[in-house]
Specification:
single chain
């Protein structure tokens, strides 16, 4: 091969490496942006779940509504029975206190579940965050490896091109003197 073709080959190889490096950098930036977005979404979800008021959750509100409705029905039934049987006002008041205590116990049990929900939210956040940070770490390791490979390929390409150019020059000089 001649000096010109070896030089063109070296220039093409260098251009391809540069283009590949630029495209790779753009894709890595997209990947990093996506990972950062996922990390932020995970953090936001954790804050929402961890710091929420358990009494304002829809499932809790539904449980309490159903229990209140049940207590109302029971109270109405108990008042009707008290009217028919002639129960004393003290007996009616005692039954109301029992119902109020039961409702308080339900609220207390729901509130005690708050720490379990917080623990679950923290565990999910930690697991997801560790996974995403691992992905980010792998991306940085891959980026470092790509730069190492690019440098090694560049040196190899340069060395090969210089050897080819040197060999071509030796042949050209040898051919010049053979004339």
């Amino acid at each position: 091969m001649g000096i010109i073709s070896d030089s063109l080959g070296a220039a093409f190889g260098l251009g391809s490496s540069i283009y590949g490096g630029i495209r790779g950098a753009k894709e890595r930036k997209k990947q990093e942006k996506l990972l950062n977005q996922q990390i932020q979404e995970n953090k936001d979800l954790f804050k929402r779940e961890y710091y929420q008021d358990i009494m304002n959750r829809s499932d809790t509100a539904n449980i309490l509504k159903n229990y209140r409705d049940t207590l109302k029905r029971q109270g109405k039934t108990q008042r009707n029975i008290a009217t028919v049987t002639g129960a004393t006002p003290e007996a009616v008041a005692a039954q109301k206190k029992i119902n109020a205590d039961a409702y308080g116990d339900v609220i207390s049990n729901i509130s005690s579940q708050s720490s379990r929900l917080k623990d679950n939210a923290l565990n999910r956040y930690t697991d997801t965050n560790n996974y995403l940070l691992g992905q980010k770490s792998n991306m940085y390791a891959q980026r470092a490896q790509n730069f190492s490979n690019l440098a090694a390929n560049g040196v190899g390409l340069l060395t090969s091109s210089l050897q080819n150019i040197g060999n071509s020059m030796d042949k050209s000089i040898g051919n010049f003197f053979k004339r």
